[in-house]
Amino acid sequence: MAAMNELVAYCFADGAIGFGANVPDGTIELVRGPAELLRQRLDIVARHAYRSDLLLVPGMPEGKDQRSKHIALTEWINWCARCEQHFEGDKLTWNRAAKVFHD
Asked: Is there a domain that residue 1 lies in?
Protein backbone atom coordinates (compact mmCIF):
# COMPACT_ATOMS: atom_id res chain seq x y z
CA MET A 1 0.00 0.00 0.00
CA ALA A 2 1.26 3.51 -0.82
CA ALA A 3 2.31 5.94 1.90
CA MET A 4 -0.08 8.83 2.64
CA ASN A 5 1.69 11.37 0.38
CA GLU A 6 2.84 8.72 -2.10
CA LEU A 7 1.12 8.23 -5.43
CA VAL A 8 1.45 5.39 -7.93
CA ALA A 9 1.17 5.81 -11.69
CA TYR A 10 0.21 2.77 -13.73
CA CYS A 11 -0.75 2.05 -17.32
CA PHE A 12 -3.36 0.04 -19.14
CA ALA A 13 -2.63 -2.15 -22.18
CA ASP A 14 -3.48 0.74 -24.52
CA GLY A 15 -0.85 2.97 -22.87
CA ALA A 16 -3.28 5.18 -20.93
CA ILE A 17 -1.78 6.29 -17.61
CA GLY A 18 -3.77 6.28 -14.38
CA PHE A 19 -2.98 7.41 -10.85
CA GLY A 20 -3.92 6.05 -7.44
CA ALA A 21 -2.83 4.73 -4.08
CA ASN A 22 -2.65 1.17 -5.44
CA VAL A 23 -2.06 -0.57 -8.76
CA PRO A 24 -5.36 -1.99 -10.11
CA ASP A 25 -5.52 -5.54 -11.46
CA GLY A 26 -4.75 -5.68 -15.17
CA THR A 27 -2.41 -2.67 -15.11
CA ILE A 28 1.36 -2.24 -14.84
CA GLU A 29 3.02 -0.02 -12.28
CA LEU A 30 5.14 2.69 -13.92
CA VAL A 31 6.44 4.82 -11.07
CA ARG A 32 5.78 5.79 -7.46
CA GLY A 33 6.75 8.73 -5.31
CA PRO A 34 5.56 11.98 -3.75
CA ALA A 35 2.19 12.85 -5.35
CA GLU A 36 2.91 16.39 -6.52
CA LEU A 37 6.37 15.53 -7.87
CA LEU A 38 5.06 12.45 -9.67
CA ARG A 39 2.30 14.39 -11.43
CA GLN A 40 4.70 17.19 -12.40
CA ARG A 41 7.28 14.83 -13.89
CA LEU A 42 4.74 12.70 -15.75
CA ASP A 43 3.18 15.84 -17.20
CA ILE A 44 6.59 16.48 -18.78
CA VAL A 45 7.68 13.01 -19.92
CA ALA A 46 4.38 11.36 -20.89
CA ARG A 47 2.60 11.94 -24.17
CA HIS A 48 -0.53 14.08 -23.99
CA ALA A 49 -3.55 12.66 -25.82
CA TYR A 50 -5.05 14.80 -28.54
CA ARG A 51 -8.22 16.58 -27.35
CA SER A 52 -8.14 15.36 -23.74
CA ASP A 53 -6.15 15.55 -20.53
CA LEU A 54 -5.22 11.86 -20.80
CA LEU A 55 -1.54 10.96 -20.47
CA LEU A 56 -0.07 8.09 -22.48
CA VAL A 57 3.09 6.01 -22.46
CA PRO A 58 4.81 7.07 -25.70
CA GLY A 59 4.72 4.35 -28.36
CA MET A 60 2.23 2.05 -26.65
CA PRO A 61 -0.94 3.21 -28.44
CA GLU A 62 0.79 2.62 -31.78
CA GLY A 63 2.05 -0.86 -30.84
CA LYS A 64 0.75 -3.51 -33.21
CA ASP A 65 1.13 -6.37 -30.72
CA GLN A 66 2.01 -7.05 -27.08
CA ARG A 67 5.72 -7.37 -27.88
CA SER A 68 5.96 -3.93 -29.51
CA LYS A 69 3.95 -2.38 -26.68
CA HIS A 70 6.25 -3.98 -24.12
CA ILE A 71 9.33 -2.65 -25.94
CA ALA A 72 7.86 0.87 -25.98
CA LEU A 73 6.97 0.61 -22.27
CA THR A 74 10.36 -0.67 -21.11
CA GLU A 75 12.33 1.79 -23.26
CA TRP A 76 10.29 4.71 -21.93
CA ILE A 77 10.58 3.59 -18.28
CA ASN A 78 14.33 3.10 -18.65
CA TRP A 79 14.72 6.54 -20.26
CA CYS A 80 12.69 8.15 -17.46
CA ALA A 81 14.72 6.33 -14.79
CA ARG A 82 17.99 7.51 -16.36
CA CYS A 83 16.70 11.10 -16.46
CA GLU A 84 15.64 10.84 -12.80
CA GLN A 85 19.27 10.44 -11.77
CA HIS A 86 19.96 14.05 -12.83
CA PHE A 87 17.32 15.64 -10.59
CA GLU A 88 18.22 16.88 -7.13
CA GLY A 89 16.04 16.37 -4.07
CA ASP A 90 13.16 13.90 -3.93
CA LYS A 91 13.32 11.05 -6.39
CA LEU A 92 10.70 8.89 -8.02
CA THR A 93 11.00 5.10 -8.11
CA TRP A 94 10.56 3.82 -11.65
CA ASN A 95 9.49 0.21 -12.20
CA ARG A 96 12.36 -1.03 -14.34
CA ALA A 97 11.08 -4.61 -13.91
CA ALA A 98 7.78 -3.97 -15.76
CA LYS A 99 6.46 -7.11 -17.40
CA VAL A 100 4.46 -7.45 -20.60
CA PHE A 101 0.67 -7.67 -20.55
CA HIS A 102 -0.82 -11.05 -21.28
CA ASP A 103 -3.63 -11.56 -23.80
From this structure: no
**Dist CA 3 CA 15 (whole Å):** 25
Has residue 103 got a pLDDT over 50? no
Nearest to 57 by CA among 66, 65, 47: 47
Report if residue 102 sits inside a domain.
no
Instruction: Tell me the residue range of the domain where 46 lies.
Output: 6-94
What percent of the chain has pLDDT above 70? 90
Q: Is residue 26 part of a domain?
A: yes
Q: Is the pLDDT of residue 42 over 90?
A: yes
Region 6-30: what's the mean pLDDT? 95
- In the chain, the number of structural domains is 1
**Model-level pTM?**
0.86
Whether 90 is in a domain gets the answer: yes
